[in-house]
Amino acid sequence: MPTTTRPNPSELSLSYLKSLTNIEDIQECLRILDLEENQVDLNLDEILDKRPQLENELDKLKVLRPQLGTLHSQAADLLNIINGTSNVAERISAQVRQLDLEQSRVQQTIKQVEDVQELKQCIMGVHQAIYIKDYESAASYINRASILDPKILNGEFAEIAVPSSEYPDIPTKTLSDAKGNLFEIFSKEFDLAVKVKDENNISRFFRLFPLLGKETEGLDKYSKFVCSIISGKNQENLAEIAVGTNFYGYALLKLYENIATIISQHQLVVETHYGQGKMIRVIERLQEECDKQSRIILDIFCDERQVSDIKIYNSTPKKPLGPQRPGQPRDIDNMPDPRELDIILNELAMISARTHLYYQFIEANVDVSLIGKDIDNYDPTEIIRISGLSKQLKSLMGDFLVMEEYFFRKAIEKAMKIDKYEEGNITSSCVGDVFYILRECLTRIISTSDIECLTTMVNLINHSLEVDYITMFQKRLLTAFATTEPKDSKIGYMILLNNLDVSAEYMRQLISELLALSSPINNDNSEKAQKCFSWLNTNTTNKFKQILMSGIEQLFAQIVKPRIRPILQDAYKDIKYVLNEYEYHEQEANDGFAKRVVLGFDSLVQIYQSTFSENNYNQMMMYILESVTSMWEKTFGSLRFDKDLRAVTNYFSTKMQWPFRDRFTRLNQISMLLNLESLSEIHDYWGSTTKSSNTITWRLTVTEAKKVIGLRIDFDPEEVSKLKL
């Protein structure tokens, strides 16, 4: 029998039921209809159960019907009242708006009439003031008229009401003519006051230009006036006889002071009458005048000091300065005198320092003028950066670097050429001479206040020290033993090493002093200057120490070390460490080993102690000490060993300042092992596989320790070998 899909109750339409032919489908549909009928009955029963409640609610609503009717009637009455009130309010509002409009028109008319009256009064007043030469009032009338609404000035009403038989032109033309007339008068009077140096009239008419709207013209005239003051004073200064080494430096300083005085005294006046930031225009004109006057001073300076003639060294190759080779041409007349060069360099340093101080003053005053203005559109350093003074000074400082390098290298050359050693000193004369000049050069370069110049000069000085100073020491070290007696050669060699040691120390001290002296450098660049000096210190001292250590090592290896073993061998002669009681007490009384050690090493180190610098002497003693301990570790003894070791330790403690006792650690441990009372006592010091040791840090290996203990003839070698350490 085929299966059919069970239908939903909603699908049991009449047509569907009529189409059924299968008894099972019919029965199934009947069952579904029965279930649906039962559900409908249940729903009807629930609705009928709620009927009383619904009827009660309907009764309550019927009670409210009369009240709703009353409310509806009252609402209609209220709506009529509101509509009437709204109509009245609308009529009143329209009337008020009309009144406001009429009132505003009346006020505008009154204002226009008043402005026209003000305009007419200003026109009449300005002409009367001009006639009686009351220029302050005339300028005030022009200023009052200029702040009126342009619509009033150009309006038909003003063109009709203002002209009169006396002043028939339209207001704008009348005012323009009056303004032009006043400007011409003010200009002539200002120029006349400048000519006769009438400060009152200069100040009087300078303040009147802004009232005419002629701020730019007024500032330009004022700038021209103050520039003429600067020019006149500079000419007076240059008219004096050039006396002294810093004449042109002081002339430039006076120029800067005159400009600074004008800016300081007049800035408040300018910005009070012309507005904030207007002083910048005057400063720009002053800087242009400063460019002209400073060029005059610096050009005369270059001519008088013959700076262009001194720059000859600029084209020479940077090679080590040294004695002239035979046949090598040299134009002595063209070589500058270092003493004259020193004077010129000091004056140039002064010029640079004063100029940078002037730069800071100008930038600070521009910053003050820009307070409250849009600083993003104006760079305070722009005035200086594009100035002719800045460009000329930069060129001069390039010449300064060339001359300073030449001066320094010539000073090194001369110091090395006249270098001599006087007995009793630890260095030769060249060290003090070179570092005196180095101090002068670096102090001078700091005083320029020019960070770019400083960094360049430090690089040049570093190069000169390497090529002309350090390299010369290297060459002399290589040839120290080739030309003189052995003793003199040795002393000469040690003096060269002292020169290197003291040079490194002088450099460290000098840089420390210079770091404290770098205050002339602008705060923004002080860190850069400190890094530059620190680099010079590190670079040069490392080179000094590198050559120094190599030289001391060579001196020790070739001359000192071969004499150490014979001293020890001589000290050990007739010395026995396997002694009976009588022999022990005899050696205890004679103490021959210690005496021979002291005598031998005194003879060895005497010349180094008297000649070497403290650092070099201690370094040499460290090499000797390492060699002695290395040799002695291979020479084992017994009962006398500990005392001999103490004697040698005490000897070196009287000869050295550096710490050295750690060099004897292995020997002290060897002595400790040689003086054990019993074999088991080693575990108290060293420890064993079952017993930990104390805090001693052993420098000997287990094999070395057993080898040392095995030297004791009273210990069984087999037991020694079985020790578990």
From TrEMBL:
Keywords: Golgi apparatus, Membrane, Protein transport, Transport. GO terms for cellular component: Golgi membrane. Residues 175-478 form the COG4 transport protein middle alpha-helical bundle domain. GO terms for biological process: protein transport. Signal peptide: none annotated. The keyword Membrane applies. Pfam families: COG4_C, COG4_m, COG4_N. InterPro entries: COG4, COG4_C, COG4_M, COG4_N. This is Conserved oligomeric Golgi complex subunit 4. It comes from Diversispora eburnea.
